[in-house]
Write a structure and sequence with these properties.
Elements (H helix, E strand, L loop, with lengths): L1 H18 L10 H6 L6 E8 L6 E6 L4 E6 L4 E3 L6 E2 L23 E7 L5 E2 L1 E2 L4 E2 L3 E2 L7 E3 L5 E7 L8 E11 L3
Antiparallel strand pairs: 1-13, 2-12, 3-11, 3-13, 4-5, 4-13, 6-7, 6-10, 6-12, 8-9, 8-11
Keywords: Signal
């Protein structure tokens, strides 16, 4: 009986202590800040020239950085010599298919991939559901991605188009970076 009373005497203060911890004491991660629309720690800008088939690379990320990318209202890409234009979301609702740089994404969509600064090898990007080195969708407003490299890396933006040498126009990209505390 004494053992049960001692256990109860110990359990009550512990339970009371847990009840007094405020909900605001929860630590928010960089992904939470990105997903919640908070102010970023860094803002990077790049312009993807539609005539450059290599795409455009942006800045340095460190392991654990989280980012999202957006384009402005003036981001229009010409996809052929006849003047057909697309916004950064490309042909929404369609899947590109075989022969495209990213067959599972929409044709002509703005996309991103991470590369190591040291080895130039692809680095995994994680959106909270899928972690892959494949091209990831950006469009006009990307989801948040966690940079999963073990060393610093860079982002490369490109348009999902198998024939980029006839492109023109430009896409103005803003990258919002959220750092680990």
């Amino acid at each position: 009986m004494v053992g049960a009373a001692a256990a109860l005497a110990l359990a009550l203060p512990l339970a009371a202590g847990f009840a007094t911890v405020p909900a605001s004491a929860t630590v928010r991660t960089p992904f939470d800040h990105c997903d919640g629309g908070d102010a970023p720690d860094r803002v990077l800008r790049a312009t993807l020239d539609g005539e450059d088939p290599r795409g455009v690379s942006v800045a340095t990320l460190v392991p654990g950085d989280v980012f999202s990318a957006r384009t402005d209202n003036f981001s229009i890409l010409r996809i052929d010599w006849w003047g057909t234009t697309k916004d950064p979301d490309g042909d929404e609702g369609r899947i590109a298919g075989p022969g495209w740089p990213a067959p599972t994404l929409a044709p002509y969509m703005l996309m991103v991939k991470a590369f190591s600064r040291v080895t130039n090898r692809p680095i995994r990007l994680d959106d909270g559901e899928v972690s892959t080195t494949a091209w990831r969708p950006v469009g006009s407003n990307s989801p948040c991605y966690i940079y999963r490299g073990s060393a610093s890396g860079r982002l490369r933006f490109q348009v999902n188009d198998p024939k980029r040498d006839d492109n023109g126009g430009q896409e103005n990209i803003t990258v919002l970076v959220f750092r680990r505390p």
